[in-house]
TrEMBL record:
Name by which UniProt lists this protein: Transcriptional regulatory protein
Family: Belongs to the TACO1 family.
Domain TACO1/YebC-like second and third: 120-278
A single GO cellular-component term on record: cytoplasm
Listed InterPro entries: Integrase-like_N, TACO1_YebC-like_2nd/3rd_dom, TACO1_YebC_N, Transcrip_reg_TACO1-like, Transcrip_reg_TACO1-like_dom3, YebC-like
Natural source organism: Chondrus crispus
Top-rank taxon, per record: Eukaryota
Domain TACO1/YebC-like N-terminal: start-end pairs: 44-112
Name of a matching Pfam family: TACO1_YebC_N
Length: 281
């Protein structure tokens, strides 16, 4: 995969990986710094969109989702974090992502507004150019608006809506923990700490060496994050994402057309994550 561009928005793309199941020599285990070139969805390449813009876009989407999750949990179970476990978990996630305290309080307050509708989670699936599969995560308080906006974006970018399940089987829901590289003095030790925390893989985006990615099963996301933080690693973002099982090779032109559509989708208020299983040769 050397020289390829692998794409997944809100999830850095796949690079050379070391699976926990394959690590047999602790001295040789390492989170790689060299491997296939990766590319985040929403971050095309350095000549199209800079790394800083992509990181800012990712954090904006993460914060938007956290705010909605807090409001949803508070509306369903009340504002008492002791009695409302879902709210406590959402606040814990917010704190881990350095979510502003005043914004957190506003999100809880919104739950008591009579005008605040219930948030609902859903997903859309689409076919991109070159046989690409696209998965769209949605969290909205207006399902009609979300559906209309997504279909409009797909039509304008000449992407095709897919029936439920026809694309989703190409992805797995995984926990993804981004560890700030500046807090890592030894990549070997990070991998070992990640494995001890129950992680499956550790990887470094070849185009963005500012963060390592640690991949976990969904249920192990929070315990693994806390374990890494206890070991002194600084976690930037920890969240569930749709990770492609395999990648489809498309032309540069098809990739650009797909990314144009993804840019439109990720700009929508109700879209929380867009994931694509594409790569270029």
């Amino acid at each position: 995969m050397q020289g390829s561009e692998n794409v997944a928005f809100l999830a850095p793309t796949f690079v050379q990986k070391f699976s926990a199941a394959r690590v047999t020599d602790r001295r040789a285990a390492v989170c790689p710094k060299e491997g296939a070139h990766g590319l985040r969805m929403g971050r095309r390449s350095e000549k199209i969109k800079g790394r800083k813009d992509a990181q800012n876009a990712q954090r904006t989407k993460v914060f938007a989702r956290i705010g909605k999750m807090i409001t949803m949990a508070a509306k369903a179970g009340g504002p008492d974090v002791i009695a409302n476990k879902a709210l406590a978990d959402a606040i814990d996630t917010a704190k881990a992502a350095s979510f502003p305290k005043d914004t957190m309080e506003k999100a809880i307050a919104r739950a008591t507004s009579v005008d605040q509708a219930d948030f609902k989670e859903s997903s859309f699936e689409a076919y991109g150019h070159g046989g690409t599969g696209i998965y769209i995560d949605v969290l909205t308080d207006n399902t009609n608006r979300a559906s209309a906006d997504i279909r409009t974006a797909l039509n304008k970018s000449k992407l095709k809506i897919a029936s439920p399940g026809s694309v989703a089987f190409n992805f797995d829901r995984k926990g993804v923990i981004q560890v700030i590289a500046g807090s890592v003095t030894d990549a070997d030790e990070l991998l070992l700490a990640a494995i001890d925390a129950g992680a499956e893989e550790c990887e470094l985006d070849d185009n963005d060496d500012s963060v390592y990615r640690v991949i976990t099963e969904p249920a192990n996301l929070t315990p693994a994050r806390k374990a890494l933080e206890t070991n002194g690693y600084a976690v930037d973002i920890a969240q569930l994402e749709m990770v492609p099982k395999a990648l489809v090779t498309v032309s540069e032109d098809d990739m650009e057309r797909n990314l144009h559509g993804v840019d439109m989708l990720q700009s929508l208020e109700d879209v929380d994550g867009v994931y694509m299983n594409a790569t270029t040769a």
